[in-house]
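for the writeup, i need someone to sanity check this before i put it in the appendix. the sequnce is what the collaborator sent (i think, or maybe the updated version? ugh). structure was predicted straight from it, no edits. if anything looks off just tell me and ill rerun, i have time this weekend
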Amino acid sequence: MKSMTGFAESSVNTKVGKIRVEIRSENHRFLEIKVSVPELLFQMETAIENSLKNSIQRGKLRLRLSLQTSLKEKQRLSEKVLRENHSFLKKINSSLGIKTEIGIEHLLMVENYFESQVGPEISKETETKIREVVKKNLEKFQKSREAEGQKLEKAILKRMETIKKTVEDIKKKRKEFVKKSEKKTKEKIERIFSSSQKNDPVISQEAAALVTEKSEIDEEIVRLEAHISKFRKTAKKKSPVGKELDFLVQEMNREVGTVSAKCKVAGISHLTIKIRLELEKIREQVQNIE
């Protein structure tokens, strides 16, 4: 089990400067990846994004690759831009009837006449170092998600154990209710029927069954116990289980709701409320699982 929340950072020194990689993620229904790299390393963006897609199934993931470089950005006058500005100013002069000669001082008054020259191209050696630090940081990131996932698993299974015990309590309460109902029904039958019929076991049994039939919850309890067992097994899987666990929680909620609606015994109603509260807490935690 892995959490969708995680964080990791790593760095490496290269010929172009210090490269720092930071990965962080948060909950998301699907997979959403955003990679941010410096312009100098733009050619690596797609490869980095693909490596993340192959490693993560769900979550909103953000990878930021930053560069602290010792290379100074050089700037020089752009002849192309100056020529364009000169042509533009000549056209303005002509349309306004101005005969003033255009000098360099006029051209420099127009913005964007410099062009940038960033250091040399990234070497294969530097690219290899960057790929390695990204891979290393991704491994650290996965471990952080696994550590958080283990905490979630422990907390969730503890709550599921509480639910399992509460279901056992419901079964006990149910047996007590049926036993008391049968006894009360038989007593009423003895008062209603004649002395020749009051001891008829068939009549007494069928009448008692009518009283308890509408509140029968055996099927719901069986399904609920099956869902609990399935949930506990699923939580132990190594593959992504978030969606499956969320579905099982919904199914358990449905069965508990039916039990509550069918059986109006106060003690059982209180126990179903307890289960639903635990399920709500579990669902909140499941939302954070990949």
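The chain has a mean pLDDT of 83. The radius of gyration is 36 Å.
thx in advance!!
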